[in-house]
Specification:
Largest sheet: 4 strands, mixed
Order of helices and strands: EHEHEE
Structural class: alpha+beta
C-alpha cells in the first residue's frame, strides 16, 4: 500500500530537490514558491545538485516560464555554485481598491 499523505516541507527559503522524482519537480517548485510568497520570502535557494545537469535544466525550464519568478541565476562559490539556483520571486499583485469619491 502506498502512503498518499502529503510530504510536509519546512518553508525556509531553501528547497533541496534531491529527494523528489523528476515528474514531481514542477509541482513541488510551484507549491513551494507559493508558500514562500505567503510567508514573504522573496529569494529561494533551490538545490538541484551538480550531477549530469538534467535536474538543473528541468528546474531552469520551469523557472523561465513561471509567472512567480522575477529572475534566477546559478549560485556562487559560497551558496552552492552550479549545484544550486537562486530564485527571486515576484510579489503577488496588490489589490487596488476603489477610492471613495
Amino acid at each position: 500500500m502506498i502512503d498518499e499523505d502529503p510530504i510536509r516541507i519546512p518553508i525556509t527559503g531553501e528547497l533541496d530537490l534531491h529527494t523528489f522524482a523528476p515528474p514531481e519537480i514542477r509541482r513541488v517548485l510551484m507549491a513551494y514558491f507559493e508558500a514562500c510568497r505567503e510567508k514573504e520570502i522573496w529569494v529561494v535557494r533551490v538545490i538541484h545538485g551538480k550531477g549530469t545537469g538534467v535536474l538543473r535544466e528541468t528546474v531552469h525550464a520551469f523557472l523561465r516560464q513561471s509567472p512567480l519568478v522575477a529572475e534566477f541565476h546559478l549560485g556562487n562559490e559560497t551558496n552552492g555554485s552550479w549545484g544550486a539556483t537562486l530564485v527571486a520571486l515576484r510579489p503577488p499583485p496588490k489589490i487596488q481598491r476603489d477610492e471613495p469619491r
